[in-house]
Specification:
This protein is an alpha+beta fold. The protein has a single domain, classed as Phosphorylase Kinase, domain 1. It is built from two helices and five strands. Strands 3-4-2-1-5 form a five-stranded antiparallel sheet, with helices on one face. A hairpin with a 2-residue loop joins strand 3 and strand 4. The longest helix is centred in the N-terminal third of the chain and has 15 residues. The protein is globular. The termini are close together.
């Protein structure tokens, strides 16, 4: 649904991740869904999720700002180390409901979901 970039928050100098809604999905329904995704993700606080600063319009594009994680992209990791295999999923009631979110604008692409 979006592309994730490494960006800098100008007011603070903080490096963060910026997920921007793809141009092909800029209809009113897609915009509302994307911004809602950011709002819901920001309501989750868990050790195994990135911190979401919020969702907003940046330069006229819907964006979700989040904590920038080090270590490259998932694609880089899979290429270098092979598939990421984890432990079995926890029981449904214990499973965190959050994905990778981010912020829009300048910098290099961190993740791109086709």
């Amino acid at each position: 649904m979006g592309e994730v970039y490494e960006a800098e928050q100008l007011e603070t100098g903080r490096r963060l991740a910026l997920k921007v809604l793809r141009g092909a999905l800029r209809g009113a329904e897609d915009r509302a869904r994307f911004l809602r995704e950011g709002q819901l993700a920001a309501s989750i606080s868990h050790a195994h999720t990135v911190y979401i600063f919020g969702s907003e319009e940046v330069g006229g594009a819907p964006a979700i700002t989040m904590e920038l994680l080090s270590g490259g992209t998932l694609k880089d990791r899979v290429t270098a180390e092979g598939p990421v295999l984890g432990a079995p999923a926890p029981a449904r009631s214990e499973s965190p409901r959050c994905g990778w979110k981010g912020c829009a604008g300048a910098g290099r692409t961190i993740s791109r979901r086709e």
